[in-house]
Design goal:
single chain; mainly alpha; 5 helices; about 0% strand
Length: about 200
Amino acid sequence: MELTLFKENLKTENDYTSTSLMIEGVNYLVDSYLLALRELTKERHVLDDLLTKKLANKDLVKLAYLQQTLTFFESATEGNIDVIEMLLSPKIDKSFSENEKSRLEDALIEAKQIAQMVQLEANIVNKISQIFDSIMNNNLNDTMKFLTVWSLALAIPTLITGFYGMNINLPVVDSEYGWLYLIIVSVLLITWMILSLKKNRKM
């Protein structure tokens, strides 16, 4: 849309010089960054909503792509500022009319504003990345804690039945309900272990 308006302006204005055409191109270039930044902001809002949901690998890929794109944008916007400031330097701006200088100054102001917006957006995305890392680390810790607790729980009956697998005389080994006693003892020990871990806030 912006490109169409730019072309239409060129058709309606007949007094464009090569210098004024270049300046209008600079203004159009700066404006195009704003449109692209809006699209990146929309993508960032989508990632914001994922903070309360389960993360998938594709979401992490999107985040990495967004960070990379914003890094390129930061470099490009800084380059735009350097170029416009060079055009406004005393050695060059003498060849510009007052109107052309004014247009360049407007472009410089807008370029600086866009650079600040890109930097702010990049900082926000980096914060989101840190939050994602914290969420994933927390989920990993919860998973490892769960697996550790149940590994210990399953080790108890294995340990008890291991003793009764030996060829030695042990209590209730010859009892008709010996297997039931072993199950009860195992369940009691597992329950005691889980309650102890909860009491000590280990799970």
